[in-house]
Specification:
By secondary structure, the protein is mostly helical. It has one domain: Arc Repressor Mutant, subunit A (Orthogonal Bundle), CATH 1.10.10. Helices cover about 65% and strands about 5% of the residues. Strands 1-2 form a two-stranded antiparallel ribbon. A hairpin with a 3-residue loop joins strand 1 and strand 2. The longest helix is centred in the last third of the chain and has 26 residues. The chain starts with 15 loop residues before the first helix and ends with a helix.
Length: about 180
């Protein structure tokens, strides 16, 4: 997984006020949209702590591993939620999933975290069977991730749907979608 895919170049960043002026959009829905976004993030953070019983940094490390797995899965075509759920049930049996192994060093580089921090948190996640790691296979999703996928990802998807609906009702979604044009 390339780190460049997750980094925006300086030449791609424009100020929000300039973008709004260019499009002639009104800024009124921004505060409601931002409020709903912040509440989504607060809820996500709380659910990570309460439901998954892990710290947010470990959650972000997990998301890098999930991203890598999805990148490999999507090479054979995109999948539905159900297809992915079925795939998660057999996650430990799928030896060929990560052809390019994910390492402590690569996660450390992507997240700009010390390698030792990544190593310590991956070990803690592996004790909960959320991740597995080996010198040969690298870092992969563990057997307990299927439960996270079924429960946590389902709820997050519903929460995201609610967020987008709130943005649509407030007019923030329309303005947001037009900013990039």
């Amino acid at each position: 997984m390339s780190n460049e895919k997750t980094i925006m170049g300086v030449n791609k960043i424009i100020s929000l006020s300039e973008a709004v002026k260019e499009k002639g959009n009104q800024e009124a829905p921004f505060s409601k949209g931002l409020y709903h976004w912040v509440m989504f993030i607060v809820s996500l953070y709380s659910r990570v702590r309460e439901k998954l019983n892990i710290d947010f940094e470990s959650f972000v490390i997990l998301q890098v591993v999930v991203s890598h797995s999805l990148y490999e899965i999507n090479k054979s075509g995109t999948k539905s939620f159900s297809d992915l759920e079925n795939h998660m049930k057999t996650i430990n049996e799928n030896k060929l999933l990560n052809k390019q192994k994910l390492t402590f060093a690569s996660i450390s580089e992507i997240l700009n975290l010390p390698r030792e921090t990544v190593r310590r948190k991956v070990i803690a996640l592996s004790k909960k069977n959320i991740l597995t790691f080996s010198t040969y296979g690298g870092i992969k999703l563990g057997s307990a991730y299927k439960t996270i996928y079924k429960d946590f990802v389902s709820q997050t998807t519903l929460d995201l749907s609610s967020l987008v609906n709130k943005w649509e009702r407030s007019g923030a979604l329309k303005n947001l979608l037009e900013l990039g044009k």
